[in-house]
Structure formats: structure tokens, C-alpha cells
Amino acid sequence: MAPSDPSFDEIISKIQAATDITAVTKTLAPYLNNLNDPVFAAQSNGQADPLDALDPATHSFAYLYFLVHRCKASHGFDHALLAKVWAFVTTCDGEQVRLASHKAMSFAEALVKVATETRQPIIAIKPLAVFIQRLQASPGQLTMIHPLLAKTCLLAQSVKDILPILDNDISDVKPQQTHINYKDFLLYHYYGGMIYAFLKKFERAVEFFKLAVSAPAEVASAIQIEAHKKYVLSSLLQYGRVLPLPKYIASAVQRTIKVQCVAYADFATAYEKKSNSAIKTELEKAKPTFVRDKNFGLAKQCMEALHRRNIQDLTRTYLTLSIENITSLIGLGSEPDGARRVEGFIVRMIESGAIFATISHEHAGGMVSFLDDPNQHNNTITMDMINTQIQKATAITAKLSAMDQAISSMPAFFNKQGSHGPEQSGYPMDESDYSMHMGYDNYVDEESFL
Amino acid sequence: MDPRLSPDPTSLDPTPGYTPANNNTMDTSADNHTANMDSDMYTDSQPAAVGTPSSLSNVPLTADGPGGSGGADQAGNSKRKRFVKVVEVDAPNNLDLDAYIATYKGHTKVNRLEFIADRCPSLQVDALKLAITELRITNTLHVSRYINLVRKLNEAVKFGAPGSGSVSSDLLTVDKAWADNQMLKAKQQTDLLEGELKNYKRNSIKESIRMGNIELGNHYYACGDLTSAHRSYSRTRDYCTTSKHIIELCMNVIKASIELGNFPHVLTYVVKAESTPEVAQDKEVTKAKLKAASGLANLDLSKYPAAARDFLSIGEELVGNQYGDVISANDIAVYGGLCALASFNRTELKRLVIDNVGFRQYLELEPHIRDLIQGFYNSNYALCLDIMDKWKNDYLLDLHLHSHIEALYTNIRKKALIQFSSPFLTVDLTKMAKSFSTAVPALEKELVSLIIGGQIEARIDSQQKILWAKQTNKRSAIFDRSTAMGQDYEREAKALVLRMQMMNHGLVVKGPPGERGGPNDGEHSFEAPHPRGGRDREMFAGTRANVSSFLSSFSRERHHR
Question: What is the distance in angstroms between the Cα of A171 and the nearest Cα belonging to chain B?
Fold first, then answer.
């Protein structure tokens, strides 16, 4: 310790003196920021670890500083350090930690470094997951650590812990508090989509990729392009066609997509035509591109999904069909064990509820009878589901209308609006339009009844 | 060796040369002329030997014999991209050549005869004989056509086509003297008319210029130079003063366009003519002629419903073949009947065809069409398909109809299938197959394609071969749809809110500053004096528009899924 540095005990006492959040912000933060790094590495004269003297819950802010440095400095598997880390993340005070968001990021990075050095990325995952949940001001807030965690999970191929975080859609982005930038958003959704694809939850994967691609942009980001490629494949897998991207997608992104993702667009058009041979040829043609983009696994899964989708289509035209016929109809007739594979598909689809059918082996080769959906929609389950849906819809509509009202009452907007006069907007100023009731009414009315 | 329908490829050599055959060449050779009409037929170079086709749905095609119309392959690609296969018809069942051709006059008579000669070996010689006689009798100025026809006749006789024995030698040899005489006459006339036209133009008398152009057009038409005729007729447009002139112009152009095969043109001029204030005389006949022309054009463009309506609204004027240089009354019956059957639903069929008094006279001329329609309406499908089958060969020999017969027949058959299965809850496929005279597997295939196309609401029990009408549970469907809609709505609304937040906080993908050099830097610094004001206003306006449009249009968009 250099002579000019304050002594260890001074630091500790100062830390302990700052008891509430205001004190922390006003006095402790600048003080600690001014200290040199080696200070944090030091130990007291009595060989006591400052970390022991501080309580992670009440002195989270300072604890964090120390911890960052320890992690950065550690090599190898330090069991004690990890125990401290775990204690910290499970008990730290969110508010204080939020104040030190830069340090939080460094902490996360250091932790990941420790984990990778010991070649056990998995040890970083659980603590980070808990840490994020503490760091977030609300469950849907995006922090800088989200993409880091997602990436680590992907590398470790352990996704159990991140799932609760992923399932909470991001609804809150406040760069002032969290110091995130657009890359965090894009990367998080890109990795998140990949995680969902890994879990074969393609509906969510498509959502995440869509969010990444349609993020506001003045120029196209490479992350968005990669996300788009995976979007195309996941969409084909889940829906059999590429869902149209939202209208507000940036034009720069659209242009770049047209240029960069040609192979994917071709594959998608061939896929939508449902001719097995054509799709196979497209797949072969595009194979180098897919392999280079590391999307070949997804593309192969698309082929499987194609067979399943074709079988589903058959349920609409046939009531009963022999397995032989099914095999030839979906184009697998020429494959040696086509019938067996088809039967396997059907069994799995029945189990997963994708189709409703019974297989009887009375006749040679098996006969499949397709049944109607036995769900009559006349029970309480349906009622509950409808109720929750309605509540969610009204909640979000309320939020939207509130935002709308807030904006329209801002002076800046009002002035601009006023200068153009009433002819510009075309929507009347009376607020009944924007009550949630009206929005909901539109939605109900259009649904009435065939 | 069976007589080739079309001449050897060597003799047909000119055809492939002019790929832009139809409208551009000034060459008045007969080959050009036939290519004009037949180019679309010669597109695919696979002539086939066909008897009465066994199944109505496809005409089996085998590549037979020498290249035949192989040379004509390229010519056909010029105007129309449709692939019409050259189908050789063994013998039409019901066609009486003389009676059939008597209803026509003028150029279309020879066109049709040549068409038949090209397609049907058994009638080849007769048709060519009649054609040549016609040319001689009318003292045609289209000499090259005459020469060509004589040559074709010689070919046919050489191959021993039926009826060759009775061909008199004067038909077989080109009457050189007469031919030269005609050509000279044609040339003289051309020069004369052009000279006169120049005169008129110098004198700037509108009416004479117009008449001069018309005369010239008529002359070119008689010589077979259709493009020049068309051009001359079009030139009269600037000199038309009364609506009578305009009508005359339109009718002339229509005539030339039909023969050129330029049917979109025909439609334009029909509209033009119909919109001019009418002249009193010949009003009804002109109207009918226009309707017939437009019907023909629509038929050619495969717009069967429109064609049907046109033909059905002609009224009684053309019963006496007044428009015989384009279309005969029998044609009206056939074209109108078939198009109507292929495109109308039951009510329309009853209202516009069966109850149509004006159309009845035409149907009398072609009683089998009347029976066909009645049979269909009374669900007597075996009868319908039988009639269609019997007359198919004849229609394949028809100049305007041949390329559409397949489509029309398929349409009619589809409608028959749909109509057959509509009143029933369950249908036994074997019985159905019998009344449609097909085998069960083929029938099943057809039904599957109809089901997938959404035209039949049913499902097939392929084990017991039964068609079950589908009973959709509408209630469940609604629940499913509403849940889906709810989820979509929620997702989109959340995305919108998130997006607004991101834009408000500037979480936008931006390129690195200064990367693109000067201008970007300039922009960047420009940002500073107007950080919140202008940009914010745009954002507010944009986001507000987003929100309200989202709220109001979400349901409308989703409804259309």
C-alpha cells in the first residue's frame, strides 16, 4: 500500500459509516472511485480479509468493488471466492448494486473469466442469473449482463437457469440507469433466440429473432442479419412459411437482408411449395452457406418438420389412410424405411397433441384414422384461458393508451400538431377513442360472428 | 408413313427464322400468314397421334415421326408464351366440312380450312381443295397463299392422304398465268392507291384522306398483308369526323387485329366503339358484332366468364351469319355455351343461358350444346361427359377454341364433381366413379386436389372409399381463433411499446461516427444544436401515429387471416 493511500481501517470505517443509500451515493461512491486499485487487494494489518468485515447485504456497494478486484485477480478454482460470490449475489441489495452498474458489469465479466479459465463455464451461470434478477429494477428490464449470461449459457449448453429470465419479455430499456446500448439488446435477443431454438421452442425463438431484426436502426447491424437468417429457418420450422416482418423494420436492414440472405430466401420459397425433391435440391445448393453460417442443423430440422407438416395437412383431406399411402403422399415413398419413419412421426405427433388419430394394425401395414379435435371448448379451462387473455389484452391496451395520452399532452407535440391544424391527423381529439374500451371494442366487433 | 400434317421442316424453314413473326414483318408470304394464326399452335414440337382420347383430362402426347413442326418451335415463342401442343386429330366425329365452312366467308374461311388441313389428315385433301377453290373463285390478290396451299396439296397427295384420288390436276398445279396476273394486279392496285393517297394528302381534304387510307387498308387486307392493313386503318383515326367514321375505323381495326391474333387490341377498340354515340342504322348489328369480337378476344385471353357474358348477350342479330367473316352463329353457340358452363354457377347458368331467349336461336343451331347444358343443370353428368367426349375432336379443329378446350373441359369436369358431391353427407366413391366414367384412384386424386383447393368441404375415408362432408365445429374454431388473436395482439402491443421506448432512449443501431467520412461528421455535429427539438417532434408524431393506427387497425388486419 502506498503511503498516500488511506489505511485499510479507514476505508472499512468509512464504508460502514455510509448506512443508507443517499450516503452511499453522495460520499462513498466518489470516495471509492478515487481509490486506487491495489487498495482493494490489500488486507488489513491483521491479515483479515476486508470482505469478511463487510456485510454483502448492507454494504453491497463497497462489497462489489472488492469482489470485482478479487475475481479479476484470481486464477484457478478458488472455492472460497466462489462461496463469497454466491453469498453476495443471493443477498446483495439491488439498489446499491444498481448504482455501481459499471462495476457490476466488470464483476460479471470477471466471473465469466474465472469460469472459462477453469473450463467450467457452468459455475458462472447460476450466480449470474441470480445477480441479474437482483440487478433488475423490474423483471423485464434489460441490463448489460443479459447478453453475457446468454452467451455463457450457450457456450456451456446449460440453459435451465436462464430460462426464467428469458421467459420474462424485455419491456423496460433505460440506458440511463443500466448503461446498455443497442448491441446489448440485439445480442441478448439473438442469443436468446438461439437458446430457445436449442430447446426446440421455436415459437419463442421466432419472437426473439424478430425483435432483433426489427429493432430500430439507421444502419443494418451484422447481428440483425444473422438473426434474420435464423429467423427465416425457425419460422419455416414452426409455421411452414416465413412470417412477414413487422412494417416498422428499418429500411437499411431490409436492403441489407435482400442482398445478404439470398440463399435463405430461395430456400424459403422452395420450402413453401412443399415439393420434397425441390426442397432437397435447394438444401443441397445452399448447404455451404448454411454450414458457414452454422445454420445447417436448423435447416436439417426444417426437413423433419416438413414431413410432420405434410402429415398434418393430410388430416384435413382424409379420414382414414393407410400408412403406405401416407408415406407415398408425403414424398417419402422412395425411402427404404419410409413407412417406419412415418409411423414414428405419427406416434410422436399424437403424443405431442399435434394431431388426433388412432393407428390400427388390423390390416397389414397399419391404417391411421384421423379424428377431430376432442376439445369441445366447453369447460372451465377454456373459460379461464379466455379470461386471462382478456385481462392481458386490456392491461396492455391501457398501457398503450396511457402512453399515447402522455405524448399527446406534451407541449412539444402539441405545438407541432397545432401548426398543422386538425386536417393532418384525421383522428378526432375526443378521448373516447383512446379509452381502452374503444380499442377493445374494435377487436371484439371484428370477430363477430360469421 | 402417315401423312404429316404440316409440311416437312425444310419447307417450313422460314418459320423459325422470324421469331417476332406475328406483327412486325412486312413479308407477305403465305408462311408468314399461317404462322400468324398458327404460331401459338406450333410452339411445342411434339405432334401426337390421338384417336378419341380415352380420358378427358389429358391428351397423351407422343413424339412421332420426323420433326414435323419442329421447325416451328421457335416461331411460336414469339407472341404467346402458352404452350399449345399440336394435336393431330384422326377424324372428327361430327364435322361436315362443307356445311361447316359454308357459314363463313372471306379470309376466315380460308384460315379455318387451312387450320383443319394442318390438323386432320383425313380431311386434309378436301379442306385444301376447298381452300384453293375459294381463293380462285374470289380472285384473291393474296397469291403467295395460293401457291402455298397448292404446294401443301401436292404434299398431301404425295403421301396418299385420303381423298387424293379425286383431286383434279388443275388444282395440283399452280396456275402460273393466273398467279402472275393477280400479282401484277395487286401491285398495280397498290401503286395506284398509294399514289391517290399522296394526292389526297397534298390536297388536305380530310374525308378523302380517310377514304384513301381505308381503300389502301382494304387492299392490303386482300393481299394478306395484315400489318400494313392494320397500320392503314389506324391511320384513319386522325381523319375521322363523325361517329360513323369512328365505328367504321373500329370495325376495320378489329377485323385486322383478330386475324393478326392481337386480341388485346381488339378489346381496346371494342371499348372505343361502344363508347361512341351510336348511329341509327345498323345499330343492333354493329353492337352484336362488337360483342362477338370482344367475346372472341376474351376467349383467347382465357377470360372465360367475360367471354361467356359477351357471347350470351349478343342477341339475335347474328343468327344469319352476318358476321361470317369473323365468326359464325354456330360458333357463337359453341363458344358461349362452353364458356358459360365452365365459369357460371347454377343460378347464373339458369338465368343467363337457359332462360336466355336471345341465345336460344343459337342453341338450336347446335343442339348438342343445348343438351350439354341441360344435362349439366339436371345433374346428368354421364350425358354431359359423353357429349363433351364426342365433340372434343371437332373442337380441336376449331381455329379459336382448340387451345382452350383442355382448360374448359377441366373446368366443367371440376364443377361437375363439386356439384355432384354438394348435396350429400356421404358419397360412395365407386358409384361416383362410375357416373363420371373414371377409375376410383383417379377420381380420388381429382377429389383430393379439389379438397386442397378448398372447393369441396369434405374428407376422404380411403379405406372404405367414402367421401364424408366435413362438419366443422364452428364454436371450437372461434375459440381457437380468438386465443390466437389474443396472443398475437399481446405480442405485437408489447413489441410496439418496447420499440417506442427504445426510440425514445436512442437505443438505435447507428453506424460508427466518422466512418463514412465528411458528410457523416457534418451530420453528427448538426445533431448538437437540435438535440431534442426536431427529432423529438418527429418521434412523437411517429410513435403516436403508430399507436393509434395499431389500435384501430389491428383487428382489421388480423380478421383477414
Answer: 6
Q: Are B141 and B182 in contact (CB under 8 A)?
A: yes
How many cross-chain Cβ pairs, A to B, lie less than 8 Å apart?
A: 194
| A404 at interface of B, judged by CB pairs closer than 8 A | yes
Q: What is the pLDDT of residues A264-300, one digit of tens each?
A: 888 888 888 877 778 888 888 888 888 888 888 888 8
- Length of chain A in terms of residues written: 450
Q: What's the mean per-residue pLDDT of chain A?
A: 78
Residue pair A405/A372 in contact by the 8 Å Cβ criterion: no
C-beta separation of A111 from A73 below 8 A: no
pLDDT at residue A187, as a whole number:
92
The three three-digit cell numbers of residue A381, written as one number:
379451462
Residues of A in contact with B536 (CB under 8 A): 412
Mutation target vs B (from A184, A327, A404; most B CBs, 10 A cutoff):
A404
- Smallest Cβ–Cβ distance between A407 and the set B486, B543, B552 belongs to B543
Beta strands in B439-479 (DSSP E): 458-461, 466-469
The answer to whether B310 and B292 are in contact (CB under 8 A) is: yes
Contact B548 A443 (CB under 8 A): no
Residues in chain B: 561
Is B475 within 8 Å of chain A by CB? yes
Alpha helix (H) residue ranges in B317-437? 329-343, 346-348, 357-365, 367-377, 381-396, 405-421, 429-435
Write out the three cell numbers for A258.
Answer: 435482400
**B256: which residues sit within 8 A by CB, 6+ positions away?**
B217, B221, B226, B229, B230, B233
Distance, in Å, from the CA atom of B558 to the CA atom of A6, rounded to the nearest integer, reads 67
CB proximity A172 to B under 8 Å: yes
- CB nearest to B508's CB, from A218, A385, A403: A218
CA distance A330 to chain B (A): 13
Helix (H, G, I), strand (E, B) or coil at B427: strand
pLDDT in tens, B230-273: 888 888 888 888 888 888 888 888 888 888 888 888 888 888 88
* Binary contact (A412, B537; C-beta < 8 A): yes
**Does any CB of chain B come closer than 8 Å to the CB of residue A426?**
no
* pTM of the shown model: 0.64
Q: What chain A residue is nearest to B556 in terms of C-alpha separation?
A: A446
- Using the Cβ of A175 and the Cβ atoms of chain B, whether some distance falls under 8 Å is answered with yes
B499-524 per-position pLDDT tens digit: 888 888 888 888 776 544 333 333 33
CA torsion B272-B275-B281-B287 (nearest 10°) is 70
Say yes or no: B557 contacts chain A, CB-CB below 8 A.
no
How far is A228 from A258, CA to CA, in rounded Å? 11
Q: How far is B267 from chain A (nearest CA, A)?
A: 36
Q: Does B479 touch chain A (CB under 8 A)?
A: yes
Q: Which region holds residue B471: left if phi is over 0, alpha if psi is between -120 and 50, else beta? A: beta
CA–CA distance from B94 to each of B128, B329, B366, B409 (Å)? 19, 17, 11, 18
B144: nearest Cα among B36, B261, B16, B40: B36
Asked if B501 lies within 8 A of A386 by C-beta distance, the reply is no
Residues 6+ apart with CB under 8 A from B114: B34, B37, B127, B128, B131, B149, B152
Q: How far is CA A40 from the centre of its chain?
A: 36
Q: Are strands B426-428 and B458-461 parallel, antiparallel or unpaired?
A: unpaired
In angstroms, the CA A111 to CA A124 distance is 6
What are the Cα distances from residue B210, in Å, to B200, B253, B281?
Answer: 9, 14, 21
β-partners of residue B48 are B87
Distance CA A401, CA A381 (A): 30
Region B459-464: mean pLDDT is: 84
